[in-house]
Amino acid sequence: MEMTIERLLESRKELKERKPEFIRQDNPKRMKLNYKWRKPKGIHSKIRHKFKGRRKMPSPGYKSPRKVKGMHHSGLEIISVRSILDIKDIKRETQGAVISKSVGMKKRLEILKKTKELNLRLLNLNIDEQIKKIEELVNSKKKKGTKEKKADVKEEKEKKEIEFKENLSEKSKQIEKKEKDKREKERILTKKV
Questions:
Q1: Which of 98, 90, 93 has the alpha carbon at shortest distance from 70?
Q2: CA angle at residue 112 from 109 to 118, to 5 degrees?
Q3: Is residue 106 a contact partner of residue 99, using CB atoms and an 8 Å limit?
Q4: pTM higher than 0.70 for the full model?
Q5: First and final CA of the chain: distance in angstroms?
Q6: Residue 8's closest CA among 94, 58, 16?
Q7: pLDDT by residue (tens digit) across 3-49?
Q8: What percent of the chain has pLDDT over 70?
Q9: Which of 1, 30, 40, 64 could join 45 in a cystine, given CB atoms 3.0 to 4.6 angstroms apart?
């Protein structure tokens, strides 16, 4: 009996809900150990011996069904996109695009427009919202003219100079106070001797 992809995805979801978190042995005791799973090697290890009530070890029983391994929960195969050339290879019926995190704003905008034009599924972003958000950001940067930037820079410089002068005057007052205290201590000490 052949199982459909929908049923396999459902069974994978149930399996993953029951799957425990595989943490390295003694991680809560020794936080300098990394959290990633490492197989216990000790000869008295209770986890390695699979004692009742101890943490579970990864085993083949926790695998997802082979036909849906690496698939998105919608049933589409995940294809990572880093440029417009990657979009052309995507098959609309069986594959879905995921824009890589390292892609910049300009290239991301181009990729989003191209996916919308080709009517492809984007799995990690909402196309219309992202396009709107990026265009607003670009427009806000364009609106801020060079004259305003220069004025802002001048104001910032003036503020920094004023703060610097205030800090200098405070430091000089503190130094004078320390010197006075030092003189008084020396005077008191020389009187006793």
A1: 98
A2: 140
A3: no
A4: no
A5: 106
A6: 16
A7: 788 999 999 999 999 999 998 988 888 888 888 899 999 999 999 99
A8: 95
A9: 40
